[in-house]
Amino acid sequence: MMPSIKTETASAIQPSHDNMVFQQPPVQDPALLHRSLTQQPHIVTHAQGNYLYLANGQKVLDACGGAAVAIIGHRNGEVITATVEQMQNVSYVHTMAYTTSSAEMLATMLLEASKGMHRLAKAYLVGSGSEANEAALKAARQYFVEKGELQRCHYVARRQSYHGNTMGAMMVSSNLARKGPYNDILPTNVSFVSPTYAYQYQRKDETEEQYSERLILELRHEILRIGHEKVISFIAEPVVGATSGCTTAPKGYFRGIRDICNEFGILLHFDEVMCGVGRTGTYFAFEQEGIVPDIVTLGKGLGGGYVPVSAMLLSEKVVDVLRRGTSAFNHGQTFQAHPVACAAGLAVQNIIKRDGLVERCAEAGKHLGTLLRETFANCKYVGDIRGRGLFWALEFVEDRSSKRPFEKSIKFGEMIQKTAFDLGVAFYPGTGTVDGMEGDHILMAPPLTVSKDELFTLVAVLKQAYEITEQAVKPRVT
Predict the structure, then answer these.
(1) How many helical (H) and strand (E) elements, i.e. helices and strands, does the chain have?
(2) Which residues contact 45 (CB under 8 A, 6 or more apart)?
(3) Pfam families from the entry (predicted)?
(4) CA nearest to 286, candidates 355, 221, 237, 353
(5) pLDDT tens digits for 401-423?
(6) pLDDT tens across 47-68, in order?
(7) How far apart are CA 218 and CA 159, in angstroms?
(8) Residue 73 lies in a domain
(9) Residue 225 sits in the same domain as residue 330
(10) Average pLDDT along the chain
(11) Does 51 map to a domain?
């Protein structure tokens, strides 16, 4: 049955002025360089649980965790206490000579989460997902330098992917809008194969297994075209994040990819900055693929938004080569393994483990998926509903039979996002979904602490925003 906003649910998303702290609106030309020079962001006065409170009095359900970051919600007292305690003890050390218990304990916890079928041996802690992926690209190259295979200088990644905004991470990304101004100055030792994106790219006459086999064969051909002896690593998001909106791989795809990497001695690098740390219903998204990468990167939910912190995890295979060679990772950052960031991240991870939030995410994700399918299955412009755990997206198309996306100028997904925000729920819109230029989606990534009532509100408000947008849009005449 289609959800509708009941009186008691609607009241939960109305502006609340209780205990509000108001701030002056920003000046006409603020000193801070925002993402836009023409549009000013909303001032958030405070946040609590799964809600943001704005200076205009609005209360907003954070249904996307910012950018899939606020994994345990906002203003958690345990995390705040742990952060302050660390600052009272030691706020910074230079890792050339020192370490701290918070850094050591966070690294140990991450490796313990990878026990069992996983053989990850070392954790490298930095500030952002981009930094983690940058470190991973360098670690992969150094692995082959230590082995004497200096000819390995090429990376392979996938189209409709994103791995960060630093130069190396952007080089292996395929988010066209974000790369556009910098293409001419980016390194070119990378090539791209097709995304795992069944809704738009699986052929009508293909089974899931055949689609998977075609993608695996494409990677093999690309590696042979380059020269397998030249390839360093294959980089992929197990569940793609904002670029294409929660797209997953067909059955057998990653098993086949792992086999190819093993065959040609290529490292497998999984980027779980957005989809890891329990977001898809298992701690690591790759657990659901039944394989183990050589390198995995984490971010976003690692610190839950309380601090900037991310991680690169290396397998024993990689660490062993470094250990038998120079016995060092030739990469260092001033703020790596920052004690305060690690203390906050450790507190977040302790809460996730203690409260069983990964298991809770898996169950809540089933409920969210059912709600979304029941509510949007027959909507005129909803082409696909996809996701895992609490990581879901709706893809919008102008014509469902042909899967033709809306013209970019219509901004269909952005219209829904803005309407939903006015109704009190924040979603993450995406554009260029299909090929980097065309396509719209809305991404949902609520905190793992989200309640069933909040999931109901999330879906109900999204449906209301969709209906308003559907009425406002005039499709092309064909």
Answers:
(1) 15, 15
(2) 20, 21, 22, 23, 53, 54, 55
(3) Aminotran_3
(4) 237
(5) 999 999 999 999 999 999 999 99
(6) 999 999 999 999 999 999 999 9
(7) 13
(8) no
(9) yes
(10) 93
(11) no
